[in-house]
Amino acid sequence: MGKNIQCGIKFIKSKCDISCNRCIDICPIGAIKKYDNKSIVDFSKSKCFSCGICVKLINPENPYLCKALQPNSHNRRVMKWISDKETFGVIIGPGLEFFSKEISLYKVVAAFKEMNAALVYRTINYAGKALENIVTEVESRFTSNANSLIIDSRCGSIVNIIRKHRPDLEGNLVKAKSTLFTSASLLKSELPNTAKIVFVGPNISYKETIVYHPQNTGLVNAVLTWHEFVLLSRDILNKSLESLPDHSFDDKETEGFVPLGTQISDILSQKKIICHSLSHMSPKGIVGYFNNVKKDQTKGFVESLFCEMCTYGPGVYSGWVDEQVSTTRKQTKKIQSEAILVVDMCNSTATANIYGDQLANQLKGILKEKVEKKATSENAQFKKSTGDGFLLTFKKLKNAICFAVDLLNDMACYNEHMDDSSKIQLHFAINFGETTIVDTTGDRSGHAVNMTFRVDGVKTSDLHTLNGETNGIELPLVNRILITENVVNIATQLDGIDFQPVGYFKLKDISGLHRIYLLQQKNQI
Question: Are 231 and 104 in contact (CB under 8 A)?
Fold first, then answer.
């Protein structure tokens, strides 16, 4: 295949708009840099792990995708196999419906059959089998060593990060085959040993992974995006896909359970295995986690799908078709990574029931005044009332922590001079992750926001005790600042911040168990 292919992205300097800089800002690993503010943009293959985020960029002044950053196309090698009449099979992955609603899967099968593909399978049929094998391996490894650190290997981007940036963790990757490699292995068993395997789907990362994967190198020989498939069929067939008769797949459709990508953590948690789910983290957050994780100090299964769901994540190119680009652009919402803080007033309903609405509203007004003052001093990017509290976001984690600590201290001073009926008790939750600005008011949404609200509301009954893991300090009912593992990973780099683990909690509507920490207040941060 040629070991010179180091990543799934190619950078064409001559097509780069040097004034754009969007790829530089969005790259989670710093693989794209601009030197001395001059027209020199450098792309590092040795750093890039082929997540594909940069390839999705749309220039706001011109509704076309960046022409300088493109997937490394495998079309030529597939065309050569067809020309040489080599035997090849095809695996169809997810994402076609997001690329085009005009092309059916059965037209795709028909196109490959016209190109003389021996067999055409689909990955979804083997998701259950792959999940079963992964769970079996993880459970076996923890049975032999309860202090194991095991890293999810289903995502090509994660495998590439480990190989390029943390090679000391390669032995911690799950060895059981992902859905793609399970499908490829079964397909390969039906074909001659020399047969080639082609995967079609949204995953640019696998263009790199298939060359270097620690256990499965050579099992898949080419990876095509859906756009590349359309180009291949045009160049080989010289006819439209719509003109082809429908053709059925060569494998039988699986009946019954088809797992979602993140269900593995739920299954392992039921088996009392510690799970660290990174699926809700921003790309830069995931990179930061793996750059800083210590294999001798972390135990459990790290569920790490780089995109929250592969089908929706980097590599899905609805924008590749020109007539769809303007629609894609209109639907684009601003996404950023930031610190998310939720603060709630405890027992406000009980206060209203016992002492009346007038006092309850008065206390809410006092809280609002203090929140607005602190939000201004700590440069909050967004603030909104949630009824009994507030949602705020901050560009820097340190500002969010200072806001919470200062407000809690202010309230402690206020409460010293009040009787029990007028005391204001608070609880906070702080998370760090990717948020989406959903409207002109700046309101935030996203998994990381939802998780912050869930953490804020945890109770002792949500605490789970896992084998080989003791719970930490007692969970306070009021006047507490809870933080997530995302925050802990960043907070270790800040001075004056201390925290203690409380334990693993099940959060409503969020898969897996999540370790929550209590922020310890210090005099100065």
Answer: no
